Amino acid sequence: MNAVLSDPPAQVASERRSRGWLPLLAVLVVVASVLVVGWIGRRLTLDGTVLHLLGGWVLRGGFDVVWSSRVWLPVVVALVGVLAGPTVAARLPWRALLPGSALAAAGWAVALARTSGRDRLTKPLAVVHEYPHDVPRVGSIGAFLSGFVDSVPADAADPWTTHVAGHPPGALLAFVLLDRVGLTGLGWAAALCVAGGALAVPAVLTGVRAVAGEDPARTAAPFLVLAPVALWVATSADALFAGVAAWGVALLAAAAARAPGRAADVRALAGGLLVGVALFLSFGLTALGLVVLAVVGVHHGRLGWGGVVRVLGVGAVGVLAVVVAFAVGGYWWVDGFSAAGDRVRSGPSYADRPLSFFLVANLAAAALALGPAAVAGLASLRRTPLALVPLAALAGMGVSDLSGLVRGETERIWLPFYVWVLAATAFLPRRGRRAWLLLSAVLAIGIEVVVRTEW
Questions:
Q1: Please, are residues 62 and 54 in contact by the beta-carbon 8 Å criterion?
Q2: Element containing residue 100 per DSSP (H, E)
Q3: Which of 17, 196, 285, 377 fits a 20 to 30 Å CA distance from 189?
Q4: How far from each other are the two terminal CA atoms of the chain, in whole angstroms?
Q5: What pTM was estimated for this model as a whole?
Q6: Which residues of the chain have pLDDT under 70?
Q7: Residue 408, phi then psi, degrees to nearest 5
C-alpha cells in the first residue's frame, strides 16, 4: 500500500536511471503545447474570432501586469511552504495535518488574491453573472425549487443570471442559506468559497490515505496546498463545489478502506449524501463518479467484489436520498440538466467559441491550473492502486471536455477534478520535490501578477 515511498533502494536507483528524465520532459512538452495553444488563440482573436476570454487566449483574463508591495505576501508564504512544507507534512501528527493543510491552503489562496488589491476576494462575486446577484430573488424554498427550471431559458420572463441558470439550484441555494442564517454580504460569500476550496485539501489527503496509506498522503500535502488552483479558490463558487465533492469521495474511500460493518456503512452513506449534494451544485460533477469507482474499486482484492458493491450501494442510497429530497421539493435533476444545456447552447459564449480550439485549450488551461508538479507527478506514475485516482480524475475531465458543453474557463470549472489529479504528486521522486513545489508556487504568483483573471 505504501509502495509510492517505500520501494527497495536498488529499485529506486534503477528507476531514477530509467525514468528520471520523464517528469522534466513531460513538463517541457506541456509548456510547449500551452504556448502553441496560446499562439493559436491569439491568431484566432486577430482574425476576428470572439473567444469570450476577456482578452486572454487560454485563461479567462487579459494580460496586465499589476506589481506592488503586496506581491511580497505570497512570495513569503511560498518560500515558507517550499522550505518547511514537506518537513512539516512528514512530521505533523495526522489529526493536526488535516486542519493544518486546510488553513495553509486558505492562507495561500488569500495571499495570492490580495496581491491584486484589497477587494480581490469579493469583487469576483459582485458581478451580475454570479450567484449572490440572484439571492434576493428567492423567497419560499419550495416555490424556488418548483419554479427553478421555468426561469432557466434566456428568453424566460425573468431568467436567472448566467451561472445560476447553468447549474442545478443547489448552487444558488447555498448562498441563500448562508444569507438566511445571518451571514450576509459578499465577504461571507467569499469566505464560503475559500473555505470550500481549502477543505478539499484534507479531503484528498483522507482519500489518498485510504487508498495507499499515510506516507503518500503526506508527500502530496504541500503540493495540494501550493498548487496554482488556489488562484480560483479565491474566489469562485467552483471551489465550494470542489470541497463538497471531495469530502463525498473521501468518505466513500474511507468506507472501502475499513472492514465491512456498521462504521463503514455510515461513512459510505455520508459520502453518498455529499456526492448527491454535489450533483445539485454542478451538473459536470457526474463525471466525478469515475473517481468514486477508483477509490472504492482498488479495494476489491481485500473486500471482494461483493464488498465493493456494498460500499457503492450504500453510497448510492445517500445519493438517491438527495435526489428524492429535491424531487419532493419540485425540482427534477434530468429536466434541469436539459434546460441548462439548452441555455448554454443558446448563449454567445457557446456559439462564438470554436469547439475544435477549445477541446485543446480547455486542457491547456487545466495544465496551468494544475502546475508543473502535477504534470511531473503524472509522468512519474507507477503501477500502484493510487495511480488510478489521478487517472480517473483525468478521465472525468476528458468526458467533460468531449461533451462540447464546456468551452473555456476550465481553470475554475474543473476544480473538483484538479484536487484529485494532484494526488499524482505523491509519485514525484524524493530528490526533486522541493524544486517542483517551488515551480508550482512561482507559476501561481506569475499568473496572479500578469493575468487579470475574472476570479
A1: yes
A2: helix 94-114
A3: 285
A4: 38
A5: 0.94
A6: 1-19
A7: 90, 165
Rounded Cα–Cα distance for residues 293 and 308 (Å): 9
Which of 61, 37, 77 has its CA nearest to residue 447? 61
DSSP per-residue letters across 59-89: SSEEE-----GGGHHHHHHHHHHHHHHHHHH
Report the half-sphere exposure of 379 (CA within 13 A, side-chain side).
Answer: 21
> Using one digit for the tens of pLDDT, what is the confidence trace for 359-412?
999 999 999 999 999 999 999 999 999 999 999 999 999 999 999 999 999 999
* CB of 197 closer than 8 Å to CB of 158: no
* Long-range CB contacts for residues 431-438, cutoff 8 Å, separation at least 24: 431/16, 432/23, 432/376, 433/86, 433/219, 434/82, 434/83, 434/86, 436/23, 436/223, 436/372, 436/373, 436/376, 436/377, 437/81, 437/82, 437/85, 437/86, 437/222, 437/223, 437/226, 437/373, 438/78, 438/82
With residue 451 as reference, give the H or E element that holds it: strand 451-453
Write down the residue that cell numbers 507534512 correspond to: 89
Which of 289, 288, 244 shows the shortest CA–CA distance to 270? 244
Distance (Å, whole) CA 232 – CA 415: 8
Cβ neighbours of 171 (radius 10 Å): 21
Per cent of the chain over pLDDT 70 is 96
